[in-house]
């Protein structure tokens, strides 16, 4: 196999154009190119409006041993040795006493369950919300009427919070193990477009992701796993045992509430994966009561900002996106004079601001895009980092959660349960907007024009304003007076961390904190990869229940 890097192509171009260039670089007849695989594609917009795609490709050629490179090609062209790819560990020697239980079917729980089911562990996945089809109907009803289902909503249900998002699949996590590539391959194997395997900034969209998670669930079931919907983890049972020279609590069972019927059930298990997501506040409270060690962690809060998508396209591309370019995105950071970090997060090209509430009388917003990203507006979170010193009660692990709730209560009250929105000019002048400017918000859920600034403590509001003004110097038009702010963006990441040891277990043996809710991930990809990491730890520790490793 031959790898070619930094292969630049004008936009637009065809697959045949790409093959012709590869053949020319390798100086081989076209018939000798047996296959061509795109491994990476990124957009080079440095010489706007003349844009190019930059590829890394792998070529399989006839008589590879006869291919020679010119000296000046050494940095661009190279021979590749076959890679074994992602490898699962060998199962442990001691069979589990019972089947593993996974609380949560977001990316962390879903991928943990997928690997365990694939290896014969027959996991039971508990999901407090509904299956994705029923969940979509419930969420649509909420957006239309404001009638909230506390157990099945934008935060809870099959696929987790990521199901109603832009579906970004990029991550900054270092991936020597190949987990990230395997996540993308599993996604494409269940209906995701092949482009996510090589795009520099892959995304899947809420509409495609909902189909993919359903197909993954069907595969888990075919391997002997189970998925229990409307089944919420409400308690854990432990016993004290002598381990490693000391007495330690060990998991023996979990308590489950079937939320549709109210029925309580006790399920014996010695393995529980806590993949409950960043919004499972009642679960965090239960874990604190049960004595699970937790700690408060920093996170970020702020607003969603909307601009016309064509403004972003012109700023980033120097031209309209047209038919050959994706809706443009951005990622911006700034430091305020007082040392606060302000940054954009979860940018949604051609997307919607959504009412992402999960508790009565509290309101949170998020961003969402469909796969085509063809909405009129672009939106992104603009957020400020807050730490335990901002919450007060630094010794209370749930102080950050209380801080989030306080902001969400203000947001709910401000617009009578609707999404509060405001023009940036009015935010700066600390006055309520009466109406929109030259464009209107694009939301899922009703909105009202209000003074969003009233939601935030003075220091955070000032930091948000200063950050947006600084972003304007990097992306002209960002601080335009009619830019629309909505609030409150409060669920950027978990407000707690559940510490785990080298075996990825918590202070209670048999419990594996996992993913974003436990404080070990941020986004679909890193959560999925952490789910795989926890599955590996379980596999290495024990064999499937009732079996010995082959």
Structure write-up:
It is a single chain. This protein has 550 residues and is of the alpha/beta class. Helix content is 26%, strand content 27%. It has helices at 15-26, 107-118, 132-145, 179-189, 205-222, 281-289, 309-317, 388-391, 399-414, 424-428, 458-474, 524-541; strands at 2-10, 33-44, 52-61, 77-79, 94-95, 101-103, 124-127, 226-229, 231-243, 246-258, 263-268, 272-274, 295-296, 299-308, 333-335, 341-348, 352-355, 365-368, 377-386, 419-423, 443-444, 447-449, 484-489, 496-497, 511-513, 542-543. A seven-stranded mixed β-sheet has the order 15-16-19-14-23-20-22. Strands 8-7-6-12-25 form a five-stranded parallel β-sheet, covered by helices on one side. Strand 9 (231-243) and strand 10 (246-258) form a beta hairpin. Helix 2 runs parallel beside helix 5. The longest helix has 18 residues, at 205-222. It is globular. It starts with a strand and ends in a 7-residue tail after the last strand. The model has no long low-confidence stretch (mean pLDDT 94).
Which short descriptors sum up this protein?
alpha/beta, 26 strands, five-stranded parallel beta sheet, 550 residues
What's the topology here?
Layout: E1 2-10, H1 15-26, E2 33-44, E3 52-61, E4 77-79, E5 94-95, E6 101-103, H2 107-118, E7 124-127, H3 132-145, H4 179-189, H5 205-222, E8 226-229, E9 231-243, E10 246-258, E11 263-268, E12 272-274, H6 281-289, E13 295-296, E14 299-308, H7 309-317, E15 333-335, E16 341-348, E17 352-355, E18 365-368, E19 377-386, H8 388-391, H9 399-414, E20 419-423, H10 424-428, E21 443-444, E22 447-449, H11 458-474, E23 484-489, E24 496-497, E25 511-513, H12 524-541, E26 542-543
Parallel strand pairs: 5-26, 6-7, 6-12, 7-8, 12-25, 17-21, 20-22
Antiparallel strand pairs: 1-3, 1-4, 2-3, 9-10, 10-11, 13-24, 14-19, 14-23, 15-16, 16-19, 17-18, 20-23
Helix pairs in contact: 2-5, 2-12
């Amino acid at each position: 196999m031959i790898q070619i890097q930094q292969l630049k192509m004008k936009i637009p171009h065809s697959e045949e154009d790409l093959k012709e260039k590869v053949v020319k670089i390798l100086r081989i007849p076209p018939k000798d190119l047996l296959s061509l695989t795109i491994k990476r594609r990124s957009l080079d917009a440095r010489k706007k409006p003349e844009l190019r795609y930059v590829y890394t490709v792998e070529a399989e050629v006839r008589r590879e041993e006869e291919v020679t490179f010119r000296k000046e090609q050494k940095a661009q062209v190279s021979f590749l040795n076959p890679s074994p790819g992602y490898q699962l560990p060998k199962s442990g020697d001691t069979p589990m006493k019972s089947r593993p239980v996974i609380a949560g079917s977001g990316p962390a729980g879903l991928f943990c369950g997928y690997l365990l089911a694939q290896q014969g562990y027959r996991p039971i996945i508990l999901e407090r919300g509904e299956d994705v089809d029923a969940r979509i109907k419930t969420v649509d009803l909420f957006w239309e009427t404001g009638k909230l289902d506390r157990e099945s909503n934008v935060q809870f249900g099959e696929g987790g919070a990521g199901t109603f998002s832009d579906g970004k699949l990029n991550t900054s996590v270092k991936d020597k193990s190949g987990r990230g590539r395997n996540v993308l391959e599993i996604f494409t194997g269940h209906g995701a477009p092949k482009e996510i395997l090589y795009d520099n900034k892959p995304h899947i969209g809420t509409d495609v992701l909902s189909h993919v998670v359903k197909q993954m669930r069907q595969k888990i079931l075919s391997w002997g796993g189970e998925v229990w919907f409307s089944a919420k983890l409400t308690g854990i049972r432990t016993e004290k045992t002598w381990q490693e020279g000391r007495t330690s609590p060990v998991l023996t069972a979990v308590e489950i509430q079937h939320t549709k019927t109210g029925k309580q059930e006790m399920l014996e298990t010695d393995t529980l994966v806590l993949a409950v997501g960043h919004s499972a506040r009642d679960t965090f409270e239960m874990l604190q009561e049960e004595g699970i060690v937790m700690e408060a962690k920093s996170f970020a809060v702020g607003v969603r900002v909307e601009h016309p998508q064509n403004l972003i396209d012109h700023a980033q591309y120097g031209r309209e996106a047209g038919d050959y370019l994706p809706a443009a995105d951005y990622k911006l950071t700034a430091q305020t004079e007082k040392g606060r970090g302000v940054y954009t997060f979860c940018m949604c090209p051609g997307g919607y601001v959504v009412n992402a509430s999960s508790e009565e009388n509290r309101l949170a917003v998020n961003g969402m895009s469909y796969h085509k990203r063809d909405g009129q507006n672009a939106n992104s979170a603009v957020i400020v980092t807050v730490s335990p010193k901002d919450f007060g009660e630094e010794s209370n692990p749930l102080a950050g959660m209380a801080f989030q709730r306080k902001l969400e209560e203000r947001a709910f009250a401000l617009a009578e349960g609707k999404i509060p929105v405001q023009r940036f000019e009015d935010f700066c002048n600390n006055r309520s907007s009466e109406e929109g400017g030259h464009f209107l918000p694009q939301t899922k859920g009703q909105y009202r024009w209000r003074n969003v600034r009233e939601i935030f403590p003075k220091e955070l509001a000032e930091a948000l304003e200063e950050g947006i003004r600084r972003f304007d110097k990097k992306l002209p038009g960002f601080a335009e007076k009619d830019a629309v702010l909505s609030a409150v963006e409060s669920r950027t990441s978990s407000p707690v961390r559940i510490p785990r040891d080298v075996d990825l277990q918590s202070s209670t043996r048999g419990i594996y904190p996992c993913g974003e809710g436990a404080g070990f991930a941020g986004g679909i990809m890193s959560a999925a990869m952490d789910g795989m990491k926890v599955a590996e730890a379980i596999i290495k520790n024990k064999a499937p229940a009732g079996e010995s490793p082959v």
